[in-house]
């Protein structure tokens, strides 16, 4: 299937750097935070990850769209990225699983993209100057005019976005085989693979809206509480931090992924901060400080927890420690909370993605650790 005939498109960064390319996907104008993903595979999963809400994703992989689009790989019901920047879109989709082209999907879902961009130069710019706001337009190709709109657009710092992407209604993902545990999972932007990974281990997952209360959580009679990944600034997501504190005070075992790690950190009294350009890709090396084992892991985060590595922190809920660190930049990648008296694990979280779609499955053991925590075995 050939690409549609394309017209000129313009990309302008907040600091004034400008790139010219061609329209890819929908025509129009879009704004967001420019971030780059280094994943060489998994563009469908990236596009449909709700954590990318209000972000314009730059793909460092030079060829995007080669295997087209299917209805099996998405991580949610729609494409969430605010815009999409690629070097060279595939002219032909080639896979027995392909149902449509990527270009068609972007058009159908009104996602504005740009192709023909020197994504290597753009990525180096973001790496050196940091993530920043960006605009893409096929209708206003005057750089000065677009720059003014970029500078007037919303910032990621201070943005509370999880409620906008969350389910409105609770739904249940049934356990596969024998049901062993019930988990209340707060949907802050959950990816479909996460309840799936729990269900295949015998967990019945009740996915709750981001606005759920402690009563809603307890109504499920859960063995454990889970917080998902999600978009936005953890410092702006206060209601969910309060809910987590109440659950920890009631000794409900906890597991959090990505945003769920940042909110766990805040619930324990640590701060969070914005990374210069974040981690987005599927080959980030992380060390488990307990076992000293290194995992290759999938990431998508722009914020991180500020907690001391190698030190115990006394909190009102127990003793907190940093469990995992990133070997590229020493950033905190996991937290653990133990009961001050018994030393039993009360909760833990990781900044990366053990459900890994796309990505390596090195960190899949963390779902088993959640089961062991709920079973009070660790
Ligand atoms: N994938 C996520 O959960 C991202 C968390 C948060 N929005 C960040 O960018 O750091």
TrEMBL record:
Species lineage: Bacteria, Bacillati, Actinomycetota, Actinomycetes, Propionibacteriales
Pfam families named among the record's database cross-references: CPSase_sm_chain, GATase
Enzyme category, top tier: ligase
Residues where L-glutamine binds: 51, 230, 232, 259, 262, 300, 302-303
Functional note: Small subunit of the glutamine-dependent carbamoyl phosphate synthetase (CPSase). CPSase catalyzes the formation of carbamoyl phosphate from the ammonia moiety of glutamine, carbonate, and phosphate donated by ATP, constituting the first step of 2 biosynthetic pathways, one leading to arginine and/or urea and the other to pyrimidine nucleotides. The small subunit (glutamine amidotransferase) binds and cleaves glutamine to supply the large subunit with the substrate ammonia.
Domain spans labelled Carbamoyl-phosphate synthase small subunit N-terminal: 7-137
Source organism, top-level taxon: Bacteria
Keywords: Amino-acid biosynthesis, Arginine biosynthesis, ATP-binding, Glutamine amidotransferase, Ligase, Nucleotide-binding, Pyrimidine biosynthesis
Stretch list, region CPSase: 1-181
Gene Ontology terms, MF aspect: ATP binding; carbamoyl-phosphate synthase (glutamine-hydrolyzing) activity; glutaminase activity
Name recorded for this polypeptide: Carbamoyl phosphate synthase small chain
Active site: 258, 353, 355
CDD domains per UniProt: GATase1_CPSase
UniProt keyword ATP-binding present: yes
UniProt pathway annotation: Pyrimidine metabolism; UMP biosynthesis via de novo pathway; (S)-dihydroorotate from bicarbonate: step 1/3; Amino-acid biosynthesis; L-arginine biosynthesis; carbamoyl phosphate from bicarbonate: step 1/1
